[in-house]
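Q: Is it fine to ask for two folds in a single conversation?
A: Yes, each is treated on its own. Send the first.
Q: Here.
A: Result:
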Amino acid sequence: PFVAKPAAASATAPQLGPTEEERQQRSAHLRRQRDRLIQKRAAERQRQLEHFQNEKTAQAAARGIDSSAASEPGQMAAGRRLVAELTPGAVVANPAMGRQTDTAAADRMRQALTAQLRSTLARSAATNSDSVEARVSQLEGMRGGGSHGA
């Protein structure tokens, strides 16, 4: 009888998919494309950054601001202190103490917020109690006037 040999069948059957060499070529091609795309994006980001910096410098020059003077650490710290002093409810850091821990700063901020909320609540409660008392008086007047008229 006729018995098919597996080796002969696989040799004559058409191959499915790309060969190993075709896969390697495709992989190399995709790698080159990816590298070109990465370089193109990096160049575009660099161009945008330079454009932004040039605009920023031109705007500062138009306003008469020296960009090197604004970046000095002492002036930046003085500016931050001034903003903190002029902002209502802000916690002003003591420059002599230097950098404090984040938890201590967070505690001070919570305390300042709590004090501000308490004062707001006290003002709100005083305003609301006046209106509540007026409403109660109005209702009592309506009830008293209705009972006398009946």
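Q: Second one now.
A: Result:
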Amino acid sequence: PSSQSAFTPLSSFLFFHRTTFPTAKYLNTQIASMVQYELEGNTFIISNKVYPYANLAQWGSDGRDMGTIDGQSTYDQLWILREDLKIKGFYTINNFTYVGSRVAKWGAGDRDTGNFEGIHLNDQLWKFEPHGSEENHYTITNYTYPKARMAKWGA
């Protein structure tokens, strides 16, 4: 895992590969056109637009055990989106391997993002807004920190 991978409120855009899951034997699968109703409950590999082989991954249960990995896709790079029951249009990003773990933004700082297990808080909610005319490209914005966008930094 790259310790230089993290998130920042600077703009960078991510795209998704929708996986045909549970038959995720081949994790690099079809790319599907996504609209809001397709996000709920589906499983995705989240990659950066500029670094398309750098997949978001979680490699442990500590809050900092998350970043991007460049290489062969594995199950810890699968993310399930769940729409919040109260705040429509915002989703939790749940890791497939570490059940109960969600991506959270617990402060305004660049490095105040990681994985979290425990009670559900609004800082774990993310909005997926289509970016331009490119299919499967989204800007991912945090509910609690609306200027914070998910992005990759570091090589």
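Q: Anything structural to flag on that second result?
A: Two points. Residues 36-39 form the longest helix (4 residues). The longest strand covers residues 43-48.
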